[in-house]
Write a structure and sequence with these properties.
Number of domains: 2
Structural class: alpha+beta
Order of helices and strands: HEEEEEEEHEE
Strand order of the largest sheet: 6-3-2-1-9
Distance between the termini: 149 Å
Helix content: 25-40%
Largest sheet: 5 strands, antiparallel
Shape: rod-shaped
Length: 218
């Protein structure tokens, strides 16, 4: 009877050589680099997509703004054409005559004021002549309501000098309500703040007649 055989010894692990180690490291580095490159490509694609979307939104906003500006331009051009046609026909223009108020001492030549009111531009041109001498170096024109207690200041300006002073442009002129009056005050300060202040600080040098219609339309 043969004695039992011993199992063969397990082979010892073969040590990893330098060449094999370098190869494994190269593969690992290549895999990491490939993963990084793929991630960079994905990020670049996402950024490009975001830029495309932003460009699309900006283009849409720009187009909407252009459409709005074009619509406003058409409206302004139409209103301008209507205003030119109305002016050519003499519509929207009112001529107002201001004379010395009742009770003023007679003067020769008589003081006079002529204002042309343009309803489209909401401005006025006031021409004065032969104003009497008096205290104050400022003038203020007020459009006064029929009750005499409320009004709108049309402008404050220096007293014109000379025999033929240039006309005064009133950038904030106001139309005269039916039954109201234009009053021209003369004084030093406080003429354009309130109507009561103009009455207290100044004196009336010119006025329109207290009639239902103070303007002559042409």
């Amino acid at each position: 009877m043969e004695p039992p055989r011993e199992p063969p010894p397990e082979p010892a692990p073969t040590p990893l050589g330098k060449s094999s180690l370098v190869a494994w490291i190269s593969v690992a580095v290549f895999a990491a680099a490939a993963a990084g490159a793929w991630e960079t490509m994905l990020v670049a694609r996402a950024q490009n997509r975001i830029l495309v979307l932003k460009g699309t939104l900006e283009a849409a906003k720009l187009k909407a703004t252009e459409n709005q500006l074009e619509a406003e331009r058409i409206v302004v051009a139409r209103e301008h054409q209507q205003a030119l046609a109305a002016r050519a026909a003499g519509a929207g223009m009112t001529v107002v005559i201001l004379t010395a108020p009742a009770g003023s001492p007679p003067a020769r030549p008589a003081p006079l004021g002529v204002m042309v009111w343009d309803a489209f531009s909401r401005t006025g041109i006031l021409r004065l002549s032969d104003l009497p001498d008096g205290p104050g170096n400022l003038l203020a024109l007020w459009a006064v309501a029929p009750d005499g207690r409320q009004g709108v200041c049309c402008g404050v300006f220096p007293c014109p000098g000379g025999e033929d002073p240039p006309p005064v442009r009133l950038e904030s002129a106001s139309p005269l309500p039916a039954g109201g009056q234009y009053l021209l005050f003369r004084g030093y300060t406080g003429l354009g703040d309130t109507l009561s202040g103009a009455r207290e600080q100044g004196s009336i040098v010119l006025a329109t007649p207290p009639a239902p219609k103070a303007g002559l339309r042409r």
